[in-house]
Amino acid sequence: MTSSLFFNLTTMAYMTSMVVFFAFLATRNKALGVAGSLIAYAGLAVQTAAIGLRWKESYDMGVGHAPLSNLYESVVFFSWTIILIYMFIDLKYKYRIVGAFVVPFALLGMAWAQLGMNSGIEPLVPALQSNWLLYHVITCFLGYAAFAVACGISIMYLLKARHEEATKSEPAGGLMSMFPPTRVLDDLNYRAIMIGFPLLTLGIITGAAWANYAWGTYWSWDPKETWSLIVWFVYAAFLHARFTRGWVGKRAAWLSVIGFAATIFCYLGVNLFLSGLHSYGTTKM
Amino acid sequence: MATNERSFVQLVWDFFCSLKLTIFLLISLALTSIIGTILPQGQLPPEYVAQISSMKLEIYSKLGFFDMYHSWWFITLLYVFSLNLISCSIKRLPHVFKFISEPVLVLSDSMRNSSSQKKEITFTASPDKAKDRLTEFISKEFATPIITEHNGEFHLFSQKSVWSRLGVYVVHLSILVIFIGAIIGSLFGFKGFVTILEGSGITSVQTNNGKQIPLGFELFCDKFNVTFYNTGAPKEFRSTLTVLKNGKPVPSRTKVKVIVNDPLTYNGITFYQSSYGQATESSEYYFTMTPRSGGSSDKFAIHEGEQITLKDGTTFKLLEVTQEVRQFMPEFSGPAARVEVGYKGKAPQTFIVLKNYPEINAQRGDDLIFSYDGSNARMYTGLQFAKDPGVEIVWLGCFLMVAGLIIAFFLSHKRIWIVITKGHARMYGNASKNHAAFGMQFDELAEKLSNLKF
Description:
heterodimer, A: 285 residues, mainly alpha, flat, B: 454 residues, alpha+beta, Double Stranded RNA Binding Domain, 5-stranded antiparallel β-sheet, 21 strands
C-alpha cells in the first residue's frame, strides 16, 4: 500500500511546517513564514494524492468506496480539510502567522491517525452503502475544518487582546507585534465561521436527508444529530453576538472556541463516550 | 394608566425583539440539549432503572428528562425562540424594505461627509454633457443609474443586489418553515416497525403510538437474504417484496429488491430494510448421525433448544443455529448449528456442525459423526415504515435556509452615487458588508473614472 507511505510523508510535512512556523514566531524572519505555508501546501498535495491512491487501492481490493468510511479515514480527511481551508484563508487574506495556530490541528489529526489507529481498508457495511455518504461527510468536515481555523484565530485574538490590556500605553513589541490587530483577527474569525456555518448546515441537512432516505426519519434526536445541532446553536449565537452590545470581541471569540470544542465532541466524543446509548452506523442497518 | 399599559406592551415587545434574548435562547437550547444525549430517552432500559436511585429517577421523570425533546419546557423554549425570530424580523423588515422601495437617490451633505469611499474629478464639459457621459460610464462599469436633479446638481444613483439585504430574513423564515413541516409530520404522519415472515404478507401495521392502521394493500415478503464479506462483516440485507392490490400483484411493485439505503414506497407509505431474523417457533432442523465404526446412519429432526436421546442413549441438544456462520467463523460459510452432545456416562461437549463442510464434521474424532442437513425454518424481514406528509415542507425550509445563508454571507448590497455640479463630479459608495472587497472595487472604479476625458 503506497498510500500509507504518502500519509507518513504528509505527517512529516505538517510537522516540519509547524516547526518552521514556530521558528517564524521566534525569529520574525518573513522567509520562514513563506516556507511554513509552502511546506503545508506540499503536505496537502501529497495528502491529496494519498487519499486518491487509497481510494484506488480499495477498488483494487474489490471493496471500492470513497475513503471516508471509518475513524482513521475521517481523521485523515479532517486534517486534509483543515489545511485546505487554511490555504484558502491564507491566500485570500495573507496573514501567514495564522498557520502557527492552525497547522498543529492538522498535525494532531495525522499523527493520531498514523500512530494510534488501524489503517486497514474495510468493506462498507450496508448502512454506509450510499452516495449520501460522500455528500454528508465532505460538507460536515469542510465545516468542521473552517471551525478549526476559526478556533486557532480566536485563540490568537484572545492572546492579543489580553496582551493589549496588560500593556495599554506602550506599543506592543515582541511576539504579539507579529499578530494581526485584534480588529483583523475578529474579522478573520467571522470570515472562517461564515464559511463553516453554511457547510455545517448543509452537513446537517444532507445527514437528515440520508436518514430520511435510509430509515424514514429525518430527525430522531440521536446523540450525534443532537450534538451537531448544539454546534449549530453555538455558532448561531456567535453570529448574533457580533451585532449585540456587550458580546462583541472577547465573548464572541470565546463562543468560537467553545463552538470548536463542541464540534470535536460531536465528532469524537459522541462515539467515544455516548456510544453505549446509541451506536452510529455500524449496528444500525 | 394608558401610558403605563403602553409602556408595558412596549416592554414586552422590546423583550421579544432583543438580540440578547436570541443569544440567551440559542445558548439555553445548546446547553439543555446536552441532557438528552447523556440520559436515555423514551423506554428506559431496566439496567439503567436498576442503577439509578429512585429519588433521582422520580425527579428526572417529573422534569421530563427522559423525553426531554418533547417536554413542555423544551417545547416552550422553541416557541419563545420562534416568537423572538418573528418579532426581530417584523421590527427590522420595514427598515430593509425601505432600502428597496425608497432608495436614497439624493445624497445628503451628512452622508457625503461620512462616506468612506470618495473620488472627485474635474472636467470642462457642461454638467448636462457630463451627466450623459457619466451615466454611460456607470451603466457600463457598475449598474444603470437613476438620475435626479436636485438644487442644480445631478445625482446618479446606481445599486447592485439590494435584495441581498433580505438574506437573513430568508434564513429566519426557513426555520419557521421547517418547524411547520415537522408539526405537520407529527400530526398527520406515522412511523413504526413491522416484521414479515418469508412467504407471508401483512395488510395492516401498528404505529409507534400503538395505533393499528390498515394499509389498503397487502405487502408480501417473497424472500429474505443476507450476504457477508470474507471478513465476516455483513455485505447486504435484501428483502424481495411484492405489493398486492385486491389480491393481485401491482406490476411496478412485484418482486422488488429492498435493501438498506434503497426503500420501497407505495401509496405514500415507505418501507425501509431495518433488521431480520429467523423464525424459530415450530421450525425443524434436520441432522444425520453416522457411527464411525460403520453401520446405518440415523436421520432426525429437532427444534431449537430441544434435547433428544438417540437410540444408543446419547443425548443431543440443539443450542442455536445460524444461516451464515461467516460472521462467527470467517473461514467458513453457510448454515451451521451449535449442538451439545452427551455420550453415555461422559460430560456433555459442545461443538459446531457445518452444513457445507461434511469433511470438517468428520474430522472430529468421536464415535459418532454428525452432519447438519438444513431446516424448514423461514427468515423474517424487519421493516421500518413511515408516512410523513410534512417532509417536503421540511426540505423546502432546508433549501431556503441554505439559499438564505449564501445570500446573507456572500452577497452584499452595493451602492454608488455620482454627484455632478459645474466643473466637477464626486463619486461616493458603500456596501452592506465585506467593506474591504468593496473598497478595492471602488478604487478600481475611481481609477477608471479619473481616466475619463470630457
